[in-house]
Design a protein that fits this description.
Helix 1 packs across helix 2. It contains three helices and no strands. With 73 residues, it is mainly alpha-helical. The chain has one domain. It starts with 11 loop residues before the first helix and ends with a helix. This is Ribbon-helix-helix protein CopG domain-containing protein. InterPro entries: Arc_rbn_hlx_hlx (IPR013321), CopG (IPR002145), Ribbon_hlx_hlx (IPR010985).
């Protein structure tokens, strides 16, 4: 996989925290940021899928947990 360098500017506090995390997890700064970005993207995808599921459920008349419990009980 090709790698592309990216330049990011941080304030002193953020850079210290990044360095602390890198040391704690025995990673490079890039490694910590890569994991953070992957986690962010995973959460974003989950949120998008949840919104799609919510729209489908509401289209079928499910607006509350009670609506679901009513039909599965």
């Amino acid at each position: 996989m090709a790698r592309y360098p990216v330049s990011i500017s941080f304030g002193e506090a953020e850079l210290k925290e990044l360095d602390r995390l890198a040391k704690k997890f025995q990673q490079t700064r890039s490694g910590v940021l890569k994991v953070a970005l992957q986690e962010y993207l995973r959460k974003l995808k989950f949120k998008q899928l949840r919104e799609i599921g919510k729209a489908v459920a509401q289209g079928k008349g499910y607006f509350t947990d009670q609506d679901i419990y009513r039909d599965i009980s």
